[in-house]
Design brief:
3-stranded antiparallel beta sheet, mainly alpha, flat, DNA polymerase, domain 1, 8 strands
């Protein structure tokens, strides 16, 4: 927490924060509270406490990115040289230069990313090099002191070296702690939606199961059955094998990272029997059901999303991300090139919308012919939006002016609204329940039933691999199999009749 106090200036409270930058130079930051002095002392003190806890100066943020081996040198020259006697300082400086610095220099990790597992891996490395317990404890003392300084400077919230006993025969971090550390590391390495999926699976399923077991990474490595038992418990709760496989993928990736850090000698997730993936059977509407859906959705907020999903097989994210600038009314073309997805923050923290100027895969970025019924509807909606903007005036939300799917006051509709309102629409009109995404399957099945090749369907839907198209859609149209049966029947039935006649 930063040091700070209140100052009165021109009849208002100002927050004054004091801190050191990465070079050790003292700095101050003044923040206006906007509160008059009279009658607002307690509110101002509360704001001061909040600022001291949460304020992150730009130069302090850059210090967080300082490689740990460089931070060690800074700590030695700024603090250790003043606080230690000459002999102790000489020992610290030698050990940093000879042992600690080279190892962490090879990793190149910033001080803010030094975790318990990072230190565990270092101590195990020293043991494999046959360093004595005395040497390891001396190095641990230096690391602990340097990270105490990092805590005092606000670069990290807690000291990861505390609680470690490097003198034990084998250092091993708790499995749940390592999973959370790995998750935090992945936050800056994967897309927001991917991280949201990782976070949900780990925090809402994996951690609650393992937290009471107090298993270390070594325990998991020596007995992979702990993982097998977890998967079986999840399946017994009714989770699909696909969901459990996602959990397995998270665990395997995390343990592979532990293996690379030399925290374990092999990946126990590779030794268990994975659940078999469930065979996916797509639901879809036939032509008559689609016609009925078009009829009941006319004038509904979902009219356009339903039309786009049915004609083009657009994904929900592609529909919400569709822009007017991507529609060429002169050349009659529609380009799919922008997406909007909704990701859960987990733990009841709501959802966030993630905009991307790209599609799910490279193949999903596609340009399609603008067919007349869709073109007419789009022009009608564009005219309605212009009229709504005129009527609402300054109250109209112009932030999403280029997006096609907005409401009457210009607010962009959310992906989850499409899914939720779609179910309400189906129930209201007694239509068979399917997911909104199943309109994409309906589009594919109608194309396939009408003689369109799998390759052409792949390009229309934006699949990256034709095997994806084949695996999902080839079983949808039973009539094509009837035609095949009739074809083989016309060839073989006369032959069989001749054989039977001859046998008489």
């Amino acid at each position: 927490m930063l040091a700070g106090h209140l100052r009165e200036k021109n009849g208002y409270y100002h927050i004054i924060l004091n801190y050191k930058d990465v070079t050790g130079k003292r700095k101050t930051k003044s923040i206006s509270t906007g509160l008059p002095v009279k009658g607002n002392k307690k509110r101002a003190e509360a704001m001061l406490l909040e600022a001291r806890k949460n304020y992150k100066p730009d130069d302090l943020l850059s210090a967080e990115a300082t490689p740990y081996h460089a931070f060690l040198q800074h700590w030695l020259s700024e603090t250790a040289i003043k606080d230690l006697d000459e002999d102790t300082y000489a020992i610290y400086a030698h050990n940093v230069k000879t042992f600690i610095g080279p190892y962490f220099g090879s990793l190149g990790i910033p001080v803010s990313e030094v975790k318990t597992s990072t230190l565990e891996a270092y101590y195990n490395h020293l043991k494999r090099d046959r360093a004595s317990k005395k040497t390891i404890l001396q190095l641990h003392e230096i690391i602990t002191a340097s990270l105490d300084y990092a805590v005092a400077e606000g670069l990290i919230s807690s000291n990861p070296a505390k609680g470690i006993n490097p003198a034990t025969n084998e250092v091993s971090v708790l499995f749940v702690d390592f999973m959370l550390e790995w998750l935090e590391m992945m936050k800056s390495r994967v897309a927001e939606t991917t991280f949201s999926s990782y976070s949900s699976g780990i925090k809402e399923s994996i951690i609650p199961y393992f937290i009471g077991l107090n298993l270390t990474l070594t325990d998991i490595e020596e007995n992979p059955k702990y993982l097998q038992d977890y998967y079986q418990a999840e399946l017994a709760k009714g989770l699909s094998s696909t969901t459990v496989l996602r959990r397995h993928a998270n665990i395997r990736k995390a343990l592979q990272h532990a293996y690379k850090l030399d925290l374990i000698r092999s990946n126990p997730a590779d030794k268990i029997e994975r659940p078999k993936p469930a065979t996916f059977t797509a639901s879809y509407y036939n032509a008559d059901e689609i016609a009925k859906l078009f009829e009941v959705s006319k004038g509904d907020p979902l009219e356009l999303p339903i039309i786009l999903a049915s004609y083009y097989g657009l994904r929900r994210s592609e529909i919400v991300g569709l822009k007017w600038s991507a529609i060429d009314f002169i050349g009659n073309k529609l380009s799919v090139e922008f997406t909007v997805t909704e990701a859960s923050l987990g733990a009841g923290n709501g959802n966030i919308l993630v905009e991307k100027a790209r599609t799910k895969t490279k193949s999903s970025r596609r340009t399609l012919p603008l067919v007349e019924p869709v073109r007419d509807l789009l022009l009608k909606i564009k005219q309605e939006q212009e009229e709504n903007r005129r009527l609402c005036g300054s109250s109209y939300n112009t932030k999403y002016i280029d997006f096609v799917c907005v409401n009457a006051v210009g607010e962009r509709i959310k992906p989850n609204y499409i899914s939720q309102h779609f179910q309400i629409l189906l129930a209201r009109h007694n239509l068979r329940r399917i997911r909104f995404h199943d309109l994409r399957h309906s589009c594919a099945s109608l194309l396939y039933a009408n003689g369109v090749s799998l390759k052409e369907i792949q390009q229309w839907l934006g699949h990256s691999d034709i095997s994806t198209t084949a695996n999902i859609y080839t079983h949808l149209d039973y009539s094509s199999k009837v035609n095949t049966a009739n074809a083989i029947l016309s060839v073989l039935s006369p032959i069989q009749a001749q054989v039977q006649e001859h046998q008489k």
